[in-house]
Specification:
Length: 280
């Protein structure tokens, strides 16, 4: 035997340590693997700062809404050049894309179901909320069977973001956590961006930052979205967990450079979130 017993044990121990550390999977300078998709693609979060206030900005929960991914990627590149734009009071996590199978076009159903994951589930209808349903409706009022998933959190992408946000909630000081989920109007090309669903409540963190984002972008806030029933969505799930969250529906106006507008506005929001204690 080439190795003595204890040397071998030491090597095995180092190997186990290496494997365990890899499962935490810090893959790049700021990158953290938070889960795998149906097709085993990596779902990544990128961390900036170490402060007690946590802000999570996520794109691509809907696969066809590519502008939401482009905006978070643009923000990531900008902050990698200038990480000091993140104030020391906060930790920022950027998740460029949750629905990675759709975004990488590796899902076999991508052409037909770009919105959904590779199991043909709308991830933003798959959260464990009080109103979750397997069959869902959109604006056309048709019932779409199974798009909510077989069960709440049936999808690996949903489970990944749920586990990640619960961890953020534990780590944040005084529940100081805000989640922004970016979407994009893909069919309504001339619609101004919107922020929703936010309930207008005095002193509410989501309301406060929705109003701030409105002031940067001119987007409208939808305080009472009721065009059709939205079930099992991320923002309602967050609200039920006591996490401040909102959707930002980026416009697709030809006359608006929404990439630049939202990147600049998110940088302003990051600065404000990390330096001002209002909205608490
Ligand atoms: Zn969407």
């Amino acid at each position: 035997m080439f190795f003595k017993g204890y040397t071998l044990r030491l090597l095995v121990f180092i190997l186990i340590l290496f494997i365990s550390f890899s499962s935490i999977a810090i893959l790049s300078q700021n990158g953290i693997l938070i889960g795998k998709s149906v097709l085993k693609n990596d779902i990544m979060a990128y961390r900036f700062g170490n402060g007690p206030r946590i802000l999570v900005i996520m794109g691509g929960i809907h696969g066809e809404e590519v502008k939401s991914v482009d905006i978070v990627m643009g923000l990531l590149r900008s902050l990698e050049q200038n990480p000091s734009a993140v104030p020391p009071e906060m930790t920022l996590y950027l998740i460029p894309c949750l629905n990675v199978d759709a975004a990488t076009k590796s899902s076999p159903s991508w052409i037909y179901h770009a919105r959904y994951n590779a199991h043909c589930v709308d991830l933003n209808r798959n959260f464990k909320t009080g109103n979750w349903k397997p069959n869902i409706v959109y604006g056309d009022k048709v019932t779409y069977k199974g798009l909510g998933g077989k069960a709440p959190e049936s999808e690996p992408e949903t489970r990944a973001i749920v586990a990640f946000l619960k961890r953020c909630q534990r780590e944040a000081r005084d529940n100081d956590l805000l989640v922004l989920s970016l979407h994009q109007y893909v069919r309504q090309h001339e619609r101004l961006g919107r922020i929703f669903p936010v309930k207008e409540r005095a002193g509410d963190v989501a309301t406060y930052y929705a109003q701030r984002y409105r002031s940067y972008t001119g987007y409208k806030i939808d305080y009472s979205f009721n065009l059709y029933e939205v079930t099992g969505d991320l923002v309602l799930w967050a609200e039920e967990q006591g996490i401040a969250a909102m959707d930002i529906e980026v416009s697709h106006l030809k006359r608006e450079n929404s990439l630049l507008l939202n990147k600049t506005s998110l940088l302003r929001l990051i600065e404000e979130y990390g330096t001002i204690s209002s909205g608490k």
